[in-house]
Amino acid sequence: MNASANPLRQGLAEDRTPEPTTVVIFGASGDLTKRKLVPALYTLMAERLLPPSFAVVGFARKQVGDGAFRAEMKDWCAKFARHKPTEELWSQFEKGLYFHTGEYDDPASYKALKERLDAIDRERGIQGNRVFYVSTPPATFPVAVKQLDENGLINKAAGGPFTRVIIEKPFGTDLASARELNAHCLTHLREDQIYRIDHYLGKETVQNLMVFRFANAFFEPLWNNRFIDHVQITGAEAIGIEGRGGYFDHAGILRDMVQNHLFQVMALTAMEPPVSLSATDLRDEKVKVLKALRPIPDGRFDEFIVRGQYRQGSVGGKRVPDYHEEAGVTAGSTTETYVALKMFIDNWRWAGVPFYLRSGKAMAKKVTEVALVFKDAPHRLFGEKSISEPNVLAIRIQPDEGISVRFGSKVPGNTLDIHPVNMEFRYGTSFGTEPPEAYERLQLDCMLGDQALYTRADEVDASWRFISRIHDEWARSAARGVPTYEAGTWGPDESDAMLRRSGQAWRRL
Amino acid sequence: MTQPEGTPRGGAAVAVDIARIEKELAALWRTQSGDRALTRACSWNLIVHCQDDDVAAAAKRVADGLVRSVPTRTILVTAHAYATRGPELEAWVSANCHVGPGGGKLLCTEEIHLQSRGKSGVEHVPSLLRALLVPDVPTALWWAGEPPDGAAAGRLLLSGVDRLIVDTVGSAAALSKMAHIGGLLDGLVVTDLNWLRTASLRSVLASLFDPPLGHRALFQLRRVVVQVDERGMAAARLLVAWLTSRLKWTIQQRIPRAAGVSWRALSRDESPVTIDVEPVAAAPRDSGVHALLLEADDGARYGFVARDRGVVTTLGPPPLSREVGAAEAPVEQLLVAALGSRGRDRLYGVALHRAIELDQSPASDRPVAGQ
Ligand SMILES: NC(=O)c1ccc[n+]([C@@H]2O[C@H](COP(=O)([O-])OP(=O)(O)OC[C@H]3O[C@@H](n4cnc5c(N)ncnc54)[C@H](OP(=O)(O)O)[C@@H]3O)[C@@H](O)[C@H]2O)c1
Known about the structure:
The complex is a heterodimer. By secondary structure, chain A is an alpha/beta fold. Chain A is built from 15 helices and 17 strands. In chain A, helix 6 runs antiparallel to helix 14 (about 455-475) and helix 9 packs across helix 10. Chain B folds into two domains: about 10-165; about 195-360, Dihydrodipicolinate Reductase, domain 2 (2-Layer Sandwich), CATH 3.30.360. Chain B has helices at about 20-35, 55-65, 120-130, 150-155, 175-180, 195, 200-205, 235-245, 330-340, 345-360; strands spanning about 15, 40, 45-50, 70-80, 90-100, 105-115, 140-145, 165, 190, 220-230, 250-255, 260-265, 270-280, 290-295, 300-305, 310-315, 320-325. In chain B, helix 5 (about 175-180) crosses helix 10.
């Protein structure tokens, strides 16, 4: 029995409602739970997108009672939820909010959790459907999955109640560890029970990339190597590492931003139109792009990749220290806070078109965008007065989401001067309504059993296969040191030089 | 000096010569932009028909707020049909600008106010509208205030309207007018703000019959009671119409009552069902709906009682008895929905026809005294 059989549901705005479910969050004392996960669940409830029979169980080592957890979560929801808690709705929500103290590697904790969940099922009429959200540091991911399975918390039987497991990022730190984690998960779960999260895919504007491409007739015919000179994908952060030094110094920007978020944006930009928006069709197309990435030739890494580390500077009027002065960064660290890549997608559509990706911390401003830079018009009818700047179609993902098109126009006057102008569409100015948070959409999709916006094992594998070779190369050449860039700039000069060698230049953002 | 985010700017209307409306608007744009980048946005032409100055003043406030969510070229038309003095047509233009999210650029939309007087003044309006519509952008006609009759709306609809927006709140008779107008123009979408106003109530009611209870309980229903205040007669009919059409019940007989109205119906398995619309003194919601209660043949009761404009208390076996968020949107937000995909709700067409059937169903010859 499911909600779609309800004749009163049909045709309503809220026609996608999950079955009664308990969401169990591992690592519920953490930052993500407070800022994102529980506020998102509360908002879903306030928008009537959750079923009446619903529960959230926080699991962590910390000793907290239900009462204290509820009070704490109410404060966090007041700060971070799109819908601020009201007395009536919060009192409904908190009735289904519990805390369970346990150790991640202790079978007794899982047995106690199972008993608790069974009791909650009876109390709230949930019938055994469960989502386990593993939001602990990555070392705990395999432990939690194994213990869940071994203690009878994973229902693998077809039919009957569902069990789904959401795994936070990072999914592995290199190809070997990602493969190991995949294999481990697949011994305890079916692929259709594994939800590898990449919260970029939950962002409205990332999904809008597909709408721009496939709901409009005039972009797609131009979207190929006949018309596109090169593509630039930027994921820049204005902040430095701000207190996350311990984590970041082990990860670096290539793992933290590129392997997951920017590769997903690139895959959505470059993929062929999927047959449907189903999880299988969409992910089939994305993985084809990742598999078609041309490996960087041995011995030529410097031509295709530039890394950098920020040094003291100023961003938005605030002083940013040297990366090495940040708390948690090891002395002499060569971890990159900036990376720029030149890549080729060896398929029919993109043959010969460079895809440039760059991502950095402590950059001039925060911006994520995809820009398609067009080839020149085939014939320069206007000779010297012809536009020197190419046409650009830029899709801004954040902030100020929207699309802009740059083209040449005649400057008013009796002479034939051509000047580039920008035509802009901004998402926020055409639709005043606030888009849902990524974690709302993603948690809802998981409860509904829709994996389309989660990454599949082969996507993770293909992206690590490309990225791990870079890490290996960097490990070999560690002694060469890392170029630096002043905080508040657009990265090291070597990055500009990489594009200049091909007669191209980074966009000024 | 920087304008705070969202501050309207340049709202003052400028009286203009009818023939120069577009030129005056362009001039206004130039003065508005000043030293900063300005984005002109338009995703709808919104014609707002107002029958008098009071309605126009209220509608203008709503339309000015609306443009933050849906950029429109707004054309307010006040038709003083019975005026005998004053010019036949007058026009004012104004730009409605605010600083977009994140500051920086000014986002501007434009507003034209036309005032017609007397019968011949009204006749000028459709052609003028045709000239003023932004090309390649759909056009909605919002009939503010009392819903129109066919003839009044027909004239304006011919100026190229894709969507007609009305509000049937407070007027059960308006529902049959809507069905008539909907048939006047091929492809015209009729959107009723009152239908959108009750959307959260339909969703709450539907949610009771999701698992774990499940929809089978719907097949055991034997009585429906809708409690509304005097504004709620149209909303009550729309709710009953939606429910009975979704459940495929057949309406048998209308039973007029001194207060309220009842119907006898047959459920899909031909079991008798009674439906009562009962008046209450005052309901907390603009739709006038106070409660909707369902009774099953085993005595089980389901439904909701409105606590206020934001929350309803639902009835049903645990865990269904609880407070649920079911906010009733203000008119501005209803208009945003009306101009979005919810404005094209297939369920509304079905419910509207069923609502008319309800009123046209054979009346019992034995009127029953009010309860
Ligand atoms: N925060 C973000 O914005 C963000 C963004 C993207 C992805 N993520 C990922 O989401 C997950 C959760 O993020 P978070 O920021 O909430 O993490 P966190 O605060 O560092 O950790 C979450 C909880 O995990 C528990 N834990 C289990 N084993 C631990 C260990 N060995 N060391 C420290 N704590 C341990 C802790 O709870 P107890 O000690 O009480 O058990 C802690 O409160 C991480 O995998 C992270 O990579 C986070």
